Every structure is written in structure tokens, then in C-alpha cells.
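[Q] Does anyone have a clean C-alpha cell version of this?
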Amino acid sequence: MKKLIGLRTLKTALGSAIAIIIAESLGLKYAAAAGIITILSVQNTKKTSITIALQRIESTLLALLISGILFWIFGYTAIVFGVYLVIFIPLTVIFKITDGIVVSSVLVTHLLVEKSISVFWIKNEILLMFIGAGIAIVLNIYMPKIEGKIKENQRDIEDYMRKILFHMAEDLRGQSVHIEEEKLFNSLEMTLKEGTERAYRNLNNYIINEAKYYVQYMEMRTLQYEILKYMRKHFVKFYMNFQQTEMVAAFTENVALNLSEYNTAEKLIEELKKIMEACKIQNLPKSREEFENRAMLFQFLNDIEYLLEVKKKFKYNLEEKN
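[A] Here you go.
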């Protein structure tokens, strides 16, 4: 059961109240706007919160500049406000600060209502934005660690993959597909999606140092998942048992046993090449059916090789960066 009141909700409520109190203590008008800005600026990650806050500060300065010029020349009317939006919105797209459109325009309405672009009101709106966005940034400095949950996802992902490979070895020997495999593939897909979402959230909680490892890990496992799905299709066409089948089944079990986060897959790839060479020197197929099945078996081995190469490349890239 999910919590009804999460950390972000508490941050939003506390931050909004603090922003309003600070704005009121400074004698600012429309102090509640600072609270609203805080509500809109509290995000799920540190990086997102800072990015949005900076965009809104930039857009506010731009909005006050454009609206101030228009109000000074043409007066304080709804039509002029509309003209302001026609100019302001395209510029936010150009400068990539569109997240500030709504909040900045709300602050501009204060000038419209008060019919003034005096230093007092310009300063008032700028301070409202700085207080609201600033409180959101301060509150988002603390983010709960989620590495533990990501590692749980990693363990589950590897466990599902291990079970799938063991089933594939049994499928090769028994020339049939396990019913349980469908559930394993579904569970693996769901865990990969959850792990990937957490990995990106974890990445965005680092401002200076980037934690890309978990994102790269999830991308690697997702690619392997797609390869496993492709490998599974071959079992529909396996209907004869050969000496090579047992060799491939045994190797598939070995891959399952050695599937882990830290395995470089290099030894497995060497072993696979030996198996492929052994298959090549055996007697040629004696029938069309045997030829087709051995071709599918060889393709299955190619897929396993790709599966292992993906892991090898992942470890190699990490070592190269380190």
C-alpha cells in the first residue's frame, strides 16, 4: 500500500508555508504567490528542481522586461497583456525556458492589476520568484537514497534472466517451451522498467558528480532482454535432438550460472567459440529437417554470443572510463 503523504508532499507543504512567511516578513505584496511558486518548483530530483527554478528566474526577468516596456508605452490593458504573451511565449521557446511561462505571467498580472511598473513593484515580483524558487531548491538538497532499491532491481533482473536461461537449456533438451517462461519474461520487463526509472532518478539527484553506472547497467540488461526474447522464438522450430543440442544446452546452463553484475563474460565467449568450432567439424546433416534444425541451433549460439558481447562491452566501457 502506497503512502498517502510522501516526502515530496511534506516538502511542498512546508516550503510553501515558509515562502509565504518570508515574503510577508519582507513586506512583499501578493506574498501567497511565493508559496505557489514553491509548490510548482519542488520536483522529484535535485537536478530537475534546480533546472526549473533557474528557468523560472530567467523567464521572470524576461517577462518583466517585455511587459514593463509594453505597459509603459501602450498602457495597462488586457489587449496589451495579450500582446505581451504573443512576444513572450515564442522567446521562451527560443531560450528554452518554457517552464517559466505560467509563473512569470502570473507575476506580470500583478503589474497589470496595480497599473504600475515602478521599482517597488518590479523588485516585489523578482523577490517573490527568488523566494519561491529558492525555498524549493533548499528543500530539494535532501533526497532519500535509492541505490538500495536499484540494487534490489539488479538482483531481481539477474535472477529472472538466470531462470530464463536455465529454462532455455531444459527447452533444448526437451524440445518444448516452459509455460512459466512467459511469466518470467513479463516480470523481467516490469523490473527493468522500474529499475530504469529509478536509475534515471538517481542520476538526476547528483549535481556535480554524475552517477551514470546504474543507467548504463539498466540499458545493458534491457538490450539483453530483447536478445532473450529473440532467442526464445527459436524453440518453436526445434523438434529434433542432436549431439550439438546437448552441448548448447550445457553451455546455456553455464551462462546462467555465471550471470552476474561483475562477470566480464570473456571466458564464456572463449568457451562459446570452442563449441562453435566443435559443431563445425561434426558430420554434415543427413536430411533437410536436420539441416534446418542445426541452422537454428547455430543461430541460437550467435544470439548467445551477442548476449555475452553486450555484457563484455559494458564492462570494457566502464573500465576505460575509470
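[Q] Thanks! Anything notable?
[A] The chain has two domains: 7-139, 147-321.
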